[in-house]
Amino acid sequence: MTKEWLKIIIAAAFEVVWVIGLKHADDVLSWIVTIIAIVISFYALIAAGKYLPVGTVYAVFVGLGTAGTVLSEILFFDEPVDIVKLLLIGTLLIGVIGLKLVTSNEEKKQEVEG
Amino acid sequence: MAWIWLVLAGLFEMTGVIMINQLHRRRDIWSALGLAAGFGLSFVCLALAMRTLPMGTAYAVWTGIGASGGAIVGILWFKESADWRRILFIIIILVSTVGLKLVS
């Protein structure tokens, strides 16, 4: 079980790498790194979903990915800290995580009923 | 213009996710090609949006459109449950997205 959660953390870490790549890559090498990060990130995400509920996996993944990208742009790329923007990203995140968790519960219910 | 690229990126992401479901059901080459094209175009549009938009904002909105759009398509076309909690979270995502558009 711990191994599966580790896969989600790896998926989220590579997610942040490719998001940074999409914005900042400017030569062949950095684009290759970006594409490799996309592949690793999705592969780890799908692998984690095999043994854990997909809705939960996706919710944790999105939470880590969003926090990681917002933090890294503030820490490494000197993006100004805008409280209103951070709050709105927070509520958006609540929406996505909530939606994924509610949907995964429904899938389980349908499986039991079906 | 950046916001148009971002919305397009979200829509292509949804297309990719729908194709994943198709691939599970049909296992044909067209679903696989649709999947690759959907995600490929989505990443290109996201990169274009990020030329002017901050990375964290663009990523959050991209994810939000993918998640809420996927749920809306599921409810409208695939007869998924229109539970009030799902509707509420979709509204929260859309309101936050519009808010981010207004402050950026």
TrEMBL record, chain B:
Q: Which GO terms describe its cellular component?
A: plasma membrane
Where does the record place it? Cell membrane
Q: Which InterPro entries match?
A: EmrE-like, Small_drug/metabolite_transptr, Small_multidrug_res
Please tell me whether the keyword Secreted is annotated for this protein: no
Q: Could you tell me the superkingdom of the organism this chain comes from?
A: Bacteria
Main localization of the protein? membrane
Membrane protein topology class = Multi-pass membrane protein
Question: What residue intervals traverse the membrane?
Answer: 29-50, 57-78, 84-103
Cite the entry's keywords alphabetically.
Cell membrane, Membrane, Transmembrane, Transmembrane helix, Transport
From the UniProt annotation, give the residues forming the signal peptide. none
Q: Which GO terms describe its molecular function?
A: transmembrane transporter activity
Q: Belongs to which family?
A: Belongs to the drug/metabolite transporter (DMT) superfamily. Small multidrug resistance (SMR) (TC 2.A.7.1) family.
Protein known as: QacE family quaternary ammonium compound efflux SMR transporter
Lineage, broadest ranks = Bacteria, Bacillati, Bacillota, Bacilli, Bacillales
